[in-house]
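HOLO CASE FILE
Compound: adenosine-5'-triphosphate
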Amino acid sequence: MDAYVRVRGLTKTFAVRRGLAQVMRGEHPVVHAVRSVDFDIAPGETVGLLGESGCGKTTTGRLLLKLLEPSAGSIAIGGRELAGLAGTELMAFRRDAQFVFQNPFDALNPRLSIANSLSEPLVNAGIPKAEHLDRMKVVLERVRIRGTDLLERYPHEMSGGQLQRIVLARALVLEPRFVVADEPVSMLDVSVRAGILNLMRELQDTLGLTAIYISHDLALVRYVARRTMVMYLGSLVEDGPTEDVIREPLHPYTRALIAAVPQPRVDQSRAPLPLRPGTADARKVGAGCAFVNRCPVAIAACTAERPPLIDLPGGRRVACHLVQAPRAAVAAEPVLS
Ligand SMILES: Nc1ncnc2c1ncn2[C@@H]1O[C@H](COP(=O)(O)OP(=O)(O)OP(=O)(O)O)[C@@H](O)[C@H]1O
Ligand SMILES: [Mg+2]
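Model generated. Tokens follow.
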């Protein structure tokens, strides 16, 4: 089947504010937020995008929804190249592809009633006013909010869990086919997270959504996504079925991530990684592997040359000079040498 999302060579750099010395030297420092990333997502598939703070997850999500323009590379969603989209095609894309924000206050205007927040996307999409209430009822039911009493309320009159359901409802009210959920439960109490996560799993199944679920939390990604892509400083370093990646992580960074989470729980805080000291600084990524400064097993090639993301059996991919692709004739399991 054709991919629903097709990303090739996706790259985003941001200019960094310069210090005086850099201005004097005529330097123009940049942050490589996303570095030449390639992936496909099948229709109806949910993929987790996992990585620590600053690795480029949100930037990737915003690029996929055309909320940002890439510095290089291409994105096609549902067969449409995003670069050329304009006019009615762009409007259709904006209906089909939605962002679920981490913070309800980024998604909901505190001065608008819930009814007004939910109808705003309908108005923007040119849906006749007579249909709004029916559509709102349908979507409230989908997010398990009974009745329409809440519609007249304002965000500050609601609990975190209710608000996050409304944020979901707002993203779903136009019946999108593609959703990017960026840390959608990280602001919630542990007690209400499970309810929202269950709801998201259900919605993925019943609506057949293609979804990317962004998180720094392996346990959450594991809960909602059968496939996981791991990012490190703008690079995709590993990709594969979530359970396989957890059972047998191939990239040294993924191995460190998994080792830091002996028993994935729903509330996994940011445990320290057992890595060489150093910081993940997107401004200091050189020509080689993004992870080389912290990698416990790096060799000379890792500084000199960026490892390509290679295909392995079982739908897995990894970008590491120490992992060899098995020779075609030998059906051996990949191993770190
Ligand atoms: N508008 C911007 N201008 C300059 N730099 C930016 C901008 N947006 C993001 N960056 C930088 O790009 C890198 C990736 O940021 P991004 O927000 O995508 O990371 P993230 O993985 O979502 O992190 P977090 O887990 O903290 O949300 C960071 O170094 C960040 O500082
Ligand atoms: Mg982010």
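CASE NOTES: The chain has a mean pLDDT of 87. The first helix runs from residue 20 to 24.
CLOSED: yes
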